[in-house]
UniProtKB/TrEMBL annotation:
Membrane topology of the entry: Multi-pass membrane protein
Chief place of localization: membrane
Protein family: Belongs to the ThrE exporter (TC 2.A.79) family.
GO CC terms, sorted: plasma membrane
Listed name of the protein: Threonine/serine exporter, ThrE family (DUF1212 domain)
Membrane-spanning parts: 120-139, 170-189, 201-217, 238-258
Keyword field: Cell membrane, Membrane, Transmembrane, Transmembrane helix
GO biological process terms, semicolon-separated: succinate transport
Keyword Lyase: no
Annotated ranges, domain Threonine/serine exporter-like N-terminal: 16-255
Pfam families named in the record: ThrE
Organism: Aliarcobacter trophiarum LMG 25534
Any GO molecular function: transmembrane transporter activity
Subcellular location: Cell membrane
Amino acid sequence: MHKLSYEEQSIITRGIIKAAVLMSEYGAESILIEQTAQRLGNVLGVSSVEISLIPSAIVLTTLKNGQSITTTRRVHHKPINMSIVCQIQNIVLKMEKKESQVNYDISYLYTILKQIEPNYYNRWLVVFMVGLACSSFAYLQGGDMIAVLVTFCASTVAMFTRQELAKKRFIMIIAFGITAFVATFIAGISKLYGLSSTPNIALAASVLLLAPGFAFVNSFLDSFKGYMMMGWGRWMDGIILTLATSVGIIFAITILGIKA
């Protein structure tokens, strides 16, 4: 059995935790992060990989021939992007299968992880589709055509605002609050001036783009599978974003002087 030097095992440990941190930052389920780290360790030649996950950090230990190396990395909160998670999964599959002449070692892992970037849809397509989704919900809830149109306008402007705030690196809590304010303010005009017979539907539907569904789903999945700290952390993320959205809505309604 090949014996790894301390330096070689340290490099492997840092490579594995780098992949795990990327997956955690972009919203991967906890059990998937753990399984991916263990599969990478197996491919790279360590006997076992032990990992501990909390919302703000990852602690990872590799074992080989009685030699143990532990490292810790900070996890920074980023917008959910499953393209990153899928790319890392593809890297692991390639390393496991070794189908080509590429030397799938730790150098390959470091190189390919540096090249990973999120794949984004065209921003204007996203703005349009979000507006269409929110206005469709307003229509399904019985909103009149004016309410549907107002919802489309409010949600598209709100989505554009959210994108701009993300570009300027506003923290998500502030971005959600401002976006909710913009959406509610625009939708509230229809009620303020009596443009629609169903203004409350427009008010409710225009902020649907801010529902933190992914955070809540992941929190329940993590909790059910035994990752209680991650589950509680992601649940609190969802709650805080919901509260930020509520503050933005209340602020807009107060300024407009309407009763939702």
